[in-house]
TrEMBL record:
This is Cholesterol oxidase. Residues 482-531 form the Glucose-methanol-choline oxidoreductase C-terminal domain. Keywords: Cholesterol metabolism, FAD, Flavoprotein, Isomerase, Lipid metabolism, Oxidoreductase, Steroid metabolism, Sterol metabolism. One of its GO terms (molecular function) is cholesterol oxidase activity. Its cofactor is FAD. GO terms for biological process: cholesterol metabolic process. It comes from Nonomuraea glycinis. It comes from the Bacteria. Residues 140-339 form the Glucose-methanol-choline oxidoreductase N-terminal domain. Pfam families: GMC_oxred_C (PF05199), GMC_oxred_C_1st (PF22500), GMC_oxred_N (PF00732). Pathway: Steroid metabolism; cholesterol degradation. Belongs to the GMC oxidoreductase family. The keyword Protein transport does not apply. Its EC number is 1.1.3.6, 5.3.3.1.
Amino acid sequence: MRDHPPVSNAVSRRGFIAGTGSILGMAALAGPAAAQARRVAAAPPIANGAHVPALVIGTGYGGSVAALRLAQAGVDVHMIEMGMAWDTPGSDGKIFCNTREPDYRSYWLRTRTKAPLNYFLGFPIDRDIPRYTGILDAEDFSGITVYQGRGVGGGSLVNGGMAVTPKRENFASVLPSVNADEMYATYYPRANAGLGVGTIDPAWFDSTACYQYSRVGRKHAQRSGFPFVFVPDVYDWDYMKQEAAGTVTKSALAGEILYGNNHGKKSLQRTYLAQARATGRVTISALHQVTSVAPAGGGRYTVVIDQLNTTGDTTTTKTVTADRVFFAAGSVGTSKLLVKLRATGALPALNGEVGKGWGDNGNVMCGRANHLWDPTGSLQSTIPCSGIDNWAAGGAFAEVAPLPTGIETWASFYLSITNNTHRAQFSWNASTGKVDLNWQLAWKQPSIDMAKTIFDKINAKEGTIYRTDLFGIYKIWGDHLTYHPLGGAVLNKATDNYGRLAGYPGLYVIDGALIPGNTTVNPFVTITALAERNIEKIIATDL
Ligand code: FAE
């Protein structure tokens, strides 16, 4: 994969995405890709009254694995995705906007951006935007904002692509009921292959301007005696080299991340979902949101779906039936649906574990102010490639993160994953008709303390201080958010040891909701590997 022109991708991807309101005329297309596009683009989105063998709610990691493997086993699959297809360029010729000029495409149904890093030099940087079904959802609960991807590809559209397998010795704490030998021999390798994971060329790392910030991170980590590690990623590293050489259109080197990458990143649209499409058995309805699942008799389930327009209004409500339903709406999406359905009587037999065991993967962010002789570079790749591992001694794994402002900031910026053991619970709030999460802001203090085991030491060694201008006015810690929601329908508690929901044969959870709150590293490789393990078992024994 050398270049990724958005328009040709748009054509081939649209082939399997039904009912998304394409703007390119089909008559203008030619060749085999066009034939496939015409064939499937003619397929409408899911119809009211339809019956499908397998319905997958959500198109992130868990959903994409389920769809591909079911289709390969000969099962027709319909995927329902509340976000947009992200297959059609805007008037600027790009599908996605960048972090420097966030526009209507950036946020899910907000009228003002909510950047994770929302201040710079002490000034707020958020701006007004039109309300639109944009790509990044900053979902507010009382004590935390949970960032999630919205659209075909789920979190893979917005994330940094860091594809990390937990250390073997930590696995028992990640998924205590899962056989580690099987995971490390079979399912982690399968997930890494399916996702297209690769690692930066160390020689290029040492010479390229765009990772000056990472090299400063390495120097400071090593001078304080911390292990520095390269972090694998799904970004196409050869493509990034060409970006640096100026021979292809820039993405990672043009501030693209969070609101999508127009090039270079192997999102699920290019990996699992592309393979799923190639089977001819998978259809996706974008801008469709599942609101209910209930037994229909005869072993089937009734699924109620709202079709949305781009301002988030429901234009049609459809009722379909399915033999099997896979909840893959992400930790928050799946948990919210299940908690609501149990409380409102649609799925009353779901057990008392549903909604419990939710964690933030210990996420906390901070910046450090370097001396003038340690510039971090005005050109920074948006794709992090390295981390500082102090998990065993201090409970923190800190990624050296970019601050791609386009100017020299002398800032080192970090996202730490910490061993925070607080777990929150989702519950139905009958008075608001919404699902609440009881996470408390104060629960981030252990994460801050663990991150400090790294950065207090580095600051002492380097004679430097924390930045106080990135998260507010004189605020050091980005402790208000997570990128890594996990849990809410925990494996072997809310479900059996393969994701089968207790009480309802044919209903499965297959996403990050299964993982009890922490993966010790970035989560999507573990979500993918667990989905590979579970769907293999389900296909072998349930179908
Ligand atoms: P997810 O990918 O969230 O997919 C769920 C899908 O379901 C979404 O497309 C939703 O729109 C859709 N959905 C939800 N509710 C409904 C409904 N009712 N009806 C229809 N559709 C629905 O779930 N992880 C890493 O490992 N490495 C990283 O570098 C990394 N960076 C991140 C950066 C950012 C900014 C963010 C937000 C996340 C990052 N993550 C990273 C986390 C990672 O993306 C996340 O763990 C996975 O995407 C979760 O996968 P799931 O399959 O659980």
